[in-house]
Specification:
Elements (H helix, E strand, L loop, with lengths): L5 E4 L3 H12 L4 E5 L14 E2 L10 H11 L6 E3 L4 H14 L2 H29 L5 E2 L3 E5 L2 H16 L5 E4 L2 H5 L9 E5 L3 E3 L2 H14 L3 E4 L2 E5 L2 E4 L2 E4 L1 E4 L5 H6 L8 E10 L9 E4 L4 E6 L2 E10 L9 H13 L9 E9 L6 E5 L2 E8 L9 H12 L19
Parallel strand pairs: 1-2, 1-14, 2-10, 4-18, 6-16, 14-21
Antiparallel strand pairs: 3-9, 5-9, 6-8, 7-8, 11-12, 12-13, 15-18, 15-19, 16-17, 17-18, 20-21
Length: 409
Amino acid sequence: MSRPEVVVVGAGVIGLSVALAAQARGLKVQVIDREGPAAGASAGNAGAFAFPDILPLASPRIIRQAPKWLLDPLGPLSIRPGYALRIAPWMLRFWRASWPAQVRASIVAQTAMMRRSQETLDPFLERAGLTGMLRREGQLQVYEGAREFRASLSGWQAREAAGIAFRHLEGDEIAEYQPGLSPRFTHATFTPGWATIDDPKDYTLALAERFRADGGEIEIAQAQALIPGGVRTTAGDRMGLVVLAAGAFSHRLARTAGVRIPLETERGYNTTFPGGGFNLRMHITFGGHGFVISRLRSGLRVGGAVELGGLDLPPNYARAEAMLKKASAFLPGLDISGGKQWMGFRPSLPDTLPAIGPLPGRPDVICAFGHGHLGLTQSTGTADIVADLLTGQEPGIDIAPFSPARFTR
């Protein structure tokens, strides 16, 4: 391969989607990753294209619930012991992002990003020959009692204002959508615009295969530092426009260019198991408990929750076991035997919006990281926007809310 015009750092779903989109625009692209395709969070997510999920994690509702959740080390939100002081500056930014005006602005930006991602998904899959991996089954959000349901209504009002379709359900209506749920869930909301992929790891590996088949190169090397006109790696310097899509490790590379990005690591846990004969019809979100269950080609996957603990502490698989135990109670008859546990790093910024755009002071480095729970969901939209930036075109949406420079002002 001749010298690339674009060097993408990161072979997860974001990096490979960007590589394919840039390749489709006629650019020569090389991807660099320290382990290879689908080695990180892209392999272990719930497989959802969660387009209706426009509400930021940083919100007054989460701030109100956080103290109670933090008292439970296995609850929906936890901070690893010894990490609280280190994460305090990030938490302060998170708290500021939860102010009402900031939340409204985040919803506007996230809605635009979701629309771009939804519009680009089918054309992207068609170009890659992967349309058959997508399922449009919708999603069911369930609630334990009228009080929990009423607390969710302001969020559904925001979605309604954004043009998102949904239907509230109650009592026996729920079983028409998903039989087998515990009667403790008295209310639910169905969102038809939610889609899922057969298996996120298989999908990411298929993107890599398509990229290589179209002439792209994926090199196994550790990116060490951003340098003028390229990136230094353990295999030598690679020159060209750089796309920084290294997920939870992206801020470390940004720092080599003198830029500090407040990227934190949400450590996500899940268990994938055969599922016995349970007929899971669609993705189910247990919002009050911070986890989901989804149907993949390889079985059923229970995962979620938020553990803020950085990149270096060992996993706490008791969190995966706690979610699995709840899932078996919430779905009586579910066989949870034979499960395989996993932990991965979600790259999260305090305002819940990703970093997309030039790195401050480095117009030759385009950021594409920090998507939190929405990396797969926003992968094709991010790829399309980054391809616009790489080819000197104006993106079809306002990307100012996603600018990495917002953290340096």
